[in-house]
Amino acid sequence: MLKLKLFHNDMSVCAQKVRMVLAYKNLEWESVHLNLRAGDQFKPEFKQVNPKGMVPVLQHNGATITESTAIIEYLDEVFPDPALMPANPLERAIVRNWMIRLDASLHENIAVISFCVAFRHQMLERYADQDALEGFLNNIPDPARASNMREFLLNGLDSPRLRQSLYVYNKLLQDMDHALSHGGWLAGAHLSLADFSLLPYLERLQQLQMAEWWHEYPGIDAWLLRMTETAGYRQGMLDWHNHSYIQLMGQKGQEAWPTVKALIDDL
Protein backbone atom coordinates (compact mmCIF):
# COMPACT_ATOMS: atom_id res chain seq x y z
CA MET A 1 0.00 0.00 0.00
CA LEU A 2 1.39 3.36 -1.00
CA LYS A 3 1.47 6.07 1.62
CA LEU A 4 -1.40 8.49 1.83
CA LYS A 5 -0.43 12.10 1.11
CA LEU A 6 -2.63 14.97 2.22
CA PHE A 7 -2.34 18.55 0.98
CA HIS A 8 -4.02 20.58 3.70
CA ASN A 9 -4.08 23.63 5.95
CA ASP A 10 -4.03 23.66 9.73
CA MET A 11 -7.24 25.67 10.29
CA SER A 12 -9.20 24.74 7.16
CA VAL A 13 -12.50 23.23 8.33
CA CYS A 14 -12.49 20.87 5.36
CA ALA A 15 -8.96 19.71 6.09
CA GLN A 16 -9.80 19.29 9.76
CA LYS A 17 -12.54 16.75 9.07
CA VAL A 18 -10.24 14.74 6.79
CA ARG A 19 -7.44 14.71 9.37
CA MET A 20 -9.89 13.56 12.06
CA VAL A 21 -11.02 10.61 9.95
CA LEU A 22 -7.39 9.70 9.23
CA ALA A 23 -6.62 9.85 12.95
CA TYR A 24 -9.72 7.92 14.01
CA LYS A 25 -8.75 5.14 11.62
CA ASN A 26 -5.12 5.29 12.82
CA LEU A 27 -3.80 5.79 9.30
CA GLU A 28 -0.30 7.07 8.54
CA TRP A 29 -0.07 9.90 6.05
CA GLU A 30 2.41 12.35 4.57
CA SER A 31 1.67 16.00 5.28
CA VAL A 32 1.97 18.80 2.73
CA HIS A 33 0.85 21.91 4.59
CA LEU A 34 -0.16 25.03 2.64
CA ASN A 35 -0.32 28.56 4.01
CA LEU A 36 -3.57 29.79 2.50
CA ARG A 37 -3.15 33.37 3.68
CA ALA A 38 0.19 33.54 1.87
CA GLY A 39 -1.41 32.14 -1.29
CA ASP A 40 0.38 28.76 -1.40
CA GLN A 41 -2.75 27.28 -3.00
CA PHE A 42 -2.23 29.47 -6.07
CA LYS A 43 1.36 28.43 -6.73
CA PRO A 44 1.91 26.55 -9.99
CA GLU A 45 3.11 23.38 -8.28
CA PHE A 46 -0.11 23.06 -6.31
CA LYS A 47 -2.32 24.12 -9.21
CA GLN A 48 -0.96 21.03 -10.98
CA VAL A 49 -2.36 18.97 -8.09
CA ASN A 50 -5.70 20.79 -7.94
CA PRO A 51 -6.44 23.42 -10.60
CA LYS A 52 -9.16 24.85 -8.34
CA GLY A 53 -6.48 25.90 -5.87
CA MET A 54 -8.34 24.41 -2.91
CA VAL A 55 -7.45 22.10 -0.04
CA PRO A 56 -7.67 19.38 1.06
CA VAL A 57 -6.42 17.01 -1.61
CA LEU A 58 -5.68 13.34 -0.96
CA GLN A 59 -3.27 11.27 -3.05
CA HIS A 60 -3.31 7.48 -2.75
CA ASN A 61 -2.14 4.69 -5.03
CA GLY A 62 -1.53 7.12 -7.89
CA ALA A 63 -4.99 8.68 -7.64
CA THR A 64 -5.77 12.27 -6.68
CA ILE A 65 -9.02 12.90 -4.81
CA THR A 66 -10.42 16.38 -4.22
CA GLU A 67 -13.39 17.62 -2.17
CA SER A 68 -13.36 16.74 1.51
CA THR A 69 -16.66 14.83 1.53
CA ALA A 70 -15.46 12.59 -1.31
CA ILE A 71 -12.17 12.10 0.53
CA ILE A 72 -13.68 10.96 3.82
CA GLU A 73 -16.14 8.62 2.09
CA TYR A 74 -13.22 7.17 0.13
CA LEU A 75 -11.23 6.65 3.32
CA ASP A 76 -14.15 4.91 5.01
CA GLU A 77 -14.63 2.58 2.06
CA VAL A 78 -10.95 1.75 1.52
CA PHE A 79 -10.18 1.50 5.24
CA PRO A 80 -13.49 0.26 6.66
CA ASP A 81 -12.33 -0.56 10.20
CA PRO A 82 -13.44 1.16 12.36
CA ALA A 83 -16.49 2.03 10.28
CA LEU A 84 -17.84 5.55 10.19
CA MET A 85 -20.90 4.80 8.07
CA PRO A 86 -23.79 2.96 9.75
CA ALA A 87 -24.85 -0.47 8.55
CA ASN A 88 -28.48 0.60 8.52
CA PRO A 89 -29.44 2.13 5.12
CA LEU A 90 -31.68 4.78 6.69
CA GLU A 91 -28.93 5.92 9.03
CA ARG A 92 -26.50 5.99 6.11
CA ALA A 93 -28.92 8.29 4.29
CA ILE A 94 -29.04 10.54 7.37
CA VAL A 95 -25.25 10.77 7.39
CA ARG A 96 -25.25 11.74 3.72
CA ASN A 97 -27.97 14.33 4.30
CA TRP A 98 -25.78 16.09 6.87
CA MET A 99 -22.81 16.03 4.51
CA ILE A 100 -24.87 17.26 1.54
CA ARG A 101 -26.11 20.10 3.71
CA LEU A 102 -22.53 21.04 4.50
CA ASP A 103 -21.47 21.09 0.88
CA ALA A 104 -24.60 22.86 -0.36
CA SER A 105 -24.71 25.67 2.17
CA LEU A 106 -22.99 25.38 5.54
CA HIS A 107 -19.42 25.48 4.28
CA GLU A 108 -19.93 28.62 2.24
CA ASN A 109 -21.69 30.30 5.13
CA ILE A 110 -19.03 29.54 7.75
CA ALA A 111 -16.59 31.27 5.41
CA VAL A 112 -18.85 34.33 5.35
CA ILE A 113 -19.04 34.44 9.15
CA SER A 114 -15.31 33.79 9.62
CA PHE A 115 -14.16 36.42 7.15
CA CYS A 116 -16.69 39.09 8.11
CA VAL A 117 -15.89 38.73 11.81
CA ALA A 118 -12.17 37.94 11.94
CA PHE A 119 -10.13 36.89 8.92
CA ARG A 120 -10.71 40.10 6.98
CA HIS A 121 -8.55 41.92 9.54
CA GLN A 122 -5.68 39.51 8.94
CA MET A 123 -6.05 39.72 5.18
CA LEU A 124 -6.23 43.51 5.10
CA GLU A 125 -3.09 43.69 7.23
CA ARG A 126 -1.21 41.25 5.01
CA TYR A 127 -2.36 42.97 1.81
CA ALA A 128 -2.33 46.57 3.02
CA ASP A 129 -1.16 47.70 -0.40
CA GLN A 130 -4.10 47.88 -2.84
CA ASP A 131 -2.10 46.32 -5.66
CA ALA A 132 -1.14 43.39 -3.45
CA LEU A 133 -4.77 42.87 -2.45
CA GLU A 134 -5.91 42.98 -6.07
CA GLY A 135 -3.17 40.52 -6.97
CA PHE A 136 -4.44 38.07 -4.33
CA LEU A 137 -8.04 38.42 -5.47
CA ASN A 138 -7.11 38.06 -9.13
CA ASN A 139 -5.39 34.75 -8.34
CA ILE A 140 -8.67 33.17 -7.20
CA PRO A 141 -9.74 31.03 -10.18
CA ASP A 142 -13.48 31.19 -9.50
CA PRO A 143 -14.81 34.71 -10.26
CA ALA A 144 -17.75 34.21 -7.88
CA ARG A 145 -15.40 33.32 -5.00
CA ALA A 146 -13.22 36.32 -5.82
CA SER A 147 -16.24 38.64 -5.85
CA ASN A 148 -17.51 37.29 -2.55
CA MET A 149 -14.08 37.62 -0.96
CA ARG A 150 -13.84 41.23 -2.06
CA GLU A 151 -17.26 41.98 -0.55
CA PHE A 152 -16.43 40.34 2.81
CA LEU A 153 -13.10 42.14 3.04
CA LEU A 154 -14.59 45.54 2.33
CA ASN A 155 -17.83 45.34 4.33
CA GLY A 156 -17.14 43.05 7.28
CA LEU A 157 -20.01 43.07 9.78
CA ASP A 158 -21.99 45.30 7.41
CA SER A 159 -21.99 42.63 4.71
CA PRO A 160 -25.56 41.74 3.68
CA ARG A 161 -24.40 38.14 3.37
CA LEU A 162 -23.63 37.93 7.09
CA ARG A 163 -27.28 38.02 8.16
CA GLN A 164 -28.11 35.27 5.66
CA SER A 165 -25.28 33.11 6.99
CA LEU A 166 -26.39 33.60 10.58
CA TYR A 167 -29.89 32.46 9.60
CA VAL A 168 -28.45 29.27 8.05
CA TYR A 169 -26.49 28.45 11.21
CA ASN A 170 -29.37 29.31 13.51
CA LYS A 171 -31.42 26.64 11.72
CA LEU A 172 -28.51 24.20 11.90
CA LEU A 173 -28.25 24.54 15.67
CA GLN A 174 -31.96 23.85 16.05
CA ASP A 175 -31.74 20.77 13.83
CA MET A 176 -28.61 19.46 15.56
CA ASP A 177 -30.28 19.76 18.96
CA HIS A 178 -33.28 17.83 17.68
CA ALA A 179 -31.12 15.07 16.17
CA LEU A 180 -28.90 14.75 19.25
CA SER A 181 -31.92 14.41 21.53
CA HIS A 182 -32.83 11.19 19.70
CA GLY A 183 -29.59 9.26 19.86
CA GLY A 184 -26.59 11.14 21.17
CA TRP A 185 -24.94 11.32 17.75
CA LEU A 186 -26.09 13.08 14.61
CA ALA A 187 -27.11 9.92 12.76
CA GLY A 188 -28.25 7.67 15.56
CA ALA A 189 -26.55 5.62 18.23
CA HIS A 190 -23.01 5.64 16.82
CA LEU A 191 -20.30 8.11 15.87
CA SER A 192 -20.21 8.65 12.11
CA LEU A 193 -18.80 10.74 9.30
CA ALA A 194 -21.59 13.22 10.00
CA ASP A 195 -20.18 14.01 13.45
CA PHE A 196 -16.62 14.47 12.22
CA SER A 197 -17.93 16.58 9.33
CA LEU A 198 -19.88 19.02 11.52
CA LEU A 199 -17.42 19.33 14.40
CA PRO A 200 -15.01 21.81 12.72
CA TYR A 201 -17.89 24.17 11.99
CA LEU A 202 -19.13 24.21 15.58
CA GLU A 203 -15.61 24.62 16.92
CA ARG A 204 -15.12 27.53 14.53
CA LEU A 205 -18.15 29.25 16.09
CA GLN A 206 -16.67 28.57 19.54
CA GLN A 207 -13.37 30.10 18.48
CA LEU A 208 -15.28 33.16 17.24
CA GLN A 209 -16.72 33.50 20.78
CA MET A 210 -20.25 32.54 19.73
CA ALA A 211 -20.93 29.61 22.08
CA GLU A 212 -23.66 31.64 23.81
CA TRP A 213 -25.62 31.13 20.60
CA TRP A 214 -26.61 27.59 21.61
CA HIS A 215 -26.99 28.04 25.39
CA GLU A 216 -30.59 26.85 25.04
CA TYR A 217 -29.39 23.60 23.44
CA PRO A 218 -27.37 21.74 26.12
CA GLY A 219 -27.24 18.64 23.92
CA ILE A 220 -24.86 20.44 21.62
CA ASP A 221 -22.37 21.16 24.39
CA ALA A 222 -22.58 17.53 25.52
CA TRP A 223 -21.92 16.37 21.95
CA LEU A 224 -18.99 18.76 21.62
CA LEU A 225 -17.47 17.35 24.80
CA ARG A 226 -17.81 13.77 23.54
CA MET A 227 -16.26 14.73 20.21
CA THR A 228 -13.26 16.42 21.82
CA GLU A 229 -12.55 13.23 23.78
CA THR A 230 -11.99 11.21 20.58
CA ALA A 231 -8.52 10.47 19.23
CA GLY A 232 -9.77 11.83 15.94
CA TYR A 233 -10.22 15.27 17.47
CA ARG A 234 -6.98 15.31 19.43
CA GLN A 235 -4.79 14.26 16.50
CA GLY A 236 -6.80 15.73 13.64
CA MET A 237 -7.69 19.13 15.07
CA LEU A 238 -6.15 19.91 18.45
CA ASP A 239 -2.59 19.01 17.42
CA TRP A 240 -2.94 21.31 14.40
CA HIS A 241 -4.42 24.32 16.15
CA ASN A 242 -2.85 27.54 14.92
CA HIS A 243 -2.89 29.63 18.07
CA SER A 244 -2.27 32.93 16.30
CA TYR A 245 -5.46 32.33 14.27
CA ILE A 246 -7.36 31.27 17.37
CA GLN A 247 -6.20 34.39 19.20
CA LEU A 248 -7.32 36.54 16.27
CA MET A 249 -10.73 34.84 16.14
CA GLY A 250 -11.15 35.17 19.88
CA GLN A 251 -10.30 38.86 19.96
CA LYS A 252 -12.31 39.87 16.91
CA GLY A 253 -15.14 37.53 17.78
CA GLN A 254 -15.50 39.05 21.24
CA GLU A 255 -15.54 42.53 19.73
CA ALA A 256 -18.12 41.51 17.11
CA TRP A 257 -20.42 39.43 19.34
CA PRO A 258 -22.77 42.27 20.43
CA THR A 259 -23.41 43.14 16.78
CA VAL A 260 -23.70 39.48 15.76
CA LYS A 261 -26.03 38.67 18.67
CA ALA A 262 -28.29 41.57 17.73
CA LEU A 263 -28.49 40.20 14.17
CA ILE A 264 -29.31 36.71 15.50
CA ASP A 265 -31.96 38.04 17.88
CA ASP A 266 -33.57 39.82 14.94
CA LEU A 267 -33.81 36.71 12.77
TrEMBL record:
InterPro entries on file: Glutathione-S-Trfase_C-like, Glutathione-S-Trfase_C_sf, Glutathione_S-Trfase, Glutathione_S-Trfase_N, GST_Omega/HSP26, Thioredoxin-like_sf
Matches recorded under Gene3D superfamilies: 1.20.1050.10, Glutaredoxin (3.40.30.10)
GO cellular component terms attached to this protein's record: cytoplasm
Domain named GST N-terminal: residues: 2-83
Entry-linked Pfam families: GST_C_2, GST_N_2
Domain GST C-terminal: residue ranges: 88-259
Protein's name according to its UniProt entry: Glutathione S-transferase family protein
